[in-house]
Amino acid sequence: xxxxxxxxxxxxxxxxxxxxxxxxxxxxxxxxxxxxxxxxxxxxxxxxxxxxxxxxxxxxxxxxxxxxxxxxxxxxxxxxxxxxxxxxxxxxxxxxxxxxxxxxxxxxxxxxxxxxxxxxxxxxxxxxxxxxxxxxxxxxxxxxxxxxxxxxxxxxxxxxxxxxxxxxxxxxxxxxxxxxxxxxxxxxxxxxxxxxxxxxxxxxxxxxxxxxxxxxxxxxxxxxxxxxxxxxxxxxxxxxxxxxxxxxxxxxxxxxxxxxxxxxxxxxxxxxxxxxxxxxxxxxxxxxxxxxxxxxxxxxxxxxxxxxxxxxxxxxxxxxxxxxxxxxxxxxxxxxxxxxxxxxxxxxxxxxxxxxxxxxxxxxxx
Length: 366
Fold this sequence. Notes:
This protein has 6 helices and 23 strands.
């Protein structure tokens, strides 16, 4: 049997106390008190115009669901002539009547295809095949859910297709105790390199790290997708991951040994690979310039927090590198959540299409 299939079967068969809710084949025969529903762009006239148009500057509501339930699957595909529509179109999700979104990300990055460019890849919770975007993270709610898409670009998206597959439950009590799904895109372009005389192991505090998430409340961190565009030749790894739980000081209780170690690889990256929980889905240039994407999902080993979580990673050893870092973090937590920082303006989301590669020593501050 193919190694990928074996790993996926292991992943689907060993999840926790609620096997059907988490996708395990072991629970698929359980009969649930739920109604299966879908909101989609099907053409009610019987024709084949199974899409909506999202005009430039326009926000469209994709789904507005009342009552108690859980979104189980999202599928999107987009036809647009705008080169970077994957970073112009912003996906937002709101649970239980909240005002501040719990999910806010350019749509491409949410599905793990960063830099505004499509890239086929797969994992347990997210897959992309050509221009088909799929998400299988469960998203529970007790008093309603709302999903929107906003086009921050200057060009209309004439054909936006989607499915929102969800379960409707007869009462709110089933989901009241569950964490709400959160996802946030962040970018630093470029990261600020720490001067060599300061960037020493004895001076490390984590304060200069690239931050994935800064959450307040009780919850669990379940994964991150990281995009790195290397501006200087040489390996940009060796940055340690750090998870500061409940306001703890440095060193945190969860402290890693290097970037590729956190993403469960070793000795830098050798080639592209996609597994259920880990992967290196986009490989840039051999000298470590160009665009690189990696992911780590904590499906079986969430990072738990009771009061707060601030998590991120060094950009190069001791934050010595200055490159383009962007990420989407995924977690579940109680509401209300800490409001997100303002999303970057659309022009600051675009990838770096032109840059001059400099030797590493010229990228560091004097």
